[in-house]
Amino acid sequence: MGFVDNIEMSLCLTLDNENSSDMFDMIHSNFLEVADIWTDKFLIGTDFKDVDELPPAHADSLKRESWTSRTNAYNAYRAHRAMIERAVEEGVENLLIVEDDAVLRPSYFDSVVAEAGKFLDSNHWDMIYFGSYYRKYGSVEVAPNVLRLSGETGWHCVLLNQTMFGELLDLPALGPMDWMCSKMIHGNKMCYGLTPSVSLQLESYSNIQQNTVSYNTFLV
Questions:
Q1: Residue 203: which pLDDT band, with cuts at 50, 70 and 90?
Q2: Is 130 within the bounds of a domain?
Q3: Is residue 5 part of a domain?
Q4: Are the C-beta atoms of residues 218 and 153 closer than 8 Å to each other?
Q5: Does the residue 1 lie in any domain?
């Protein structure tokens, strides 16, 4: 399966509590069974330390309360940076970032990836979203099951080429990584999304939104 078989590092952002640990065990098994992807735990509190502070104020920052008034979204941004820094340190050519509520969809995965791979394995890509939200009018299906992204969000399961590591680490703290990519990266990089999405987020409690959320009605 080309780009899937060639994933060099897969990290799952995991909270240091029993529920998140149980979720990781389930996700680890799901990724192995569906895609033969080995996913390692990236543990908050061990691999990464939270801070009790808000992001720096900036005129171009995201104006949502979840970013401006709560520490969790800023810590998620910092954790994503730390995961990319780990990939740089290890010298890998790509990194799959996984959230601890993301699963692969077995009914879609093999057929979508096989068809999408005909394009993605023979064309340069900077980012591949296994799942994304809120399809934009400017997005174009450039090949069967492959969408050229134009502002979609969602970093619950995203594959980063090493070509993006430095550029993502250079982004200022203006908002969550997926929001900044939708505004600042998609327009000038080769960012693709699998469609239909082969990864979704389970309905669960969001530490960022501070309530139980389900995003799956917005999947691309």
A1: low
A2: yes
A3: no
A4: no
A5: no
Place of tokens 């900077």: 126
- State the angle between helix axes of 71-90 and 177-184 in degrees (0 to 180), rounded to the nearest 10: 80
Distance CA 212, CA 206 (A): 6
Number of domains in the chain: 1
Measured in degrees and rounded to the nearest 5, phi and psi for residue 162 equal -60, -20
d(CA 181, CA 164): 11
CB–CB of 35/20 below 8 Å? no
CA distance 121 to 116: 8
Contact criterion met (CB below 8 Å) for 181 and 97: no
pLDDT digits (tens, 9 = 90+) for 12-35: 999 888 888 889 999 999 999 999
Q: Which residues pair with 129 in a beta bridge?
A: 158, 193
Asked if residue 3 is part of any domain, the answer here is: no
The pair of three-digit structure tokens given for residue 144, joined into one six-digit string: 């069967």
Classify strands 199-201 and 146-148 as parallel, antiparallel or unpaired: unpaired
Residue 185: give its domain's CATH number: 3.90.550.10
Q: Hey, is 118 helix, strand or coil? A: helix
Q: What angle do CA 50, 155, 76 make, to 5 degrees?
A: 10
DSSP bridge partners of 141: 147
Q: Judge contact between 41 and 26, C-beta under 8 A.
A: no
Q: Is the pTM of this model over 0.90?
A: yes
CA distance 153 to 209: 15
Domain containing residue 187:
10-218
Q: CA–CA separation, 163 vs 173, rounded Å?
A: 20
Q: Give 81-93 pLDDT, tens digit per residue.
A: 999 999 999 999 9
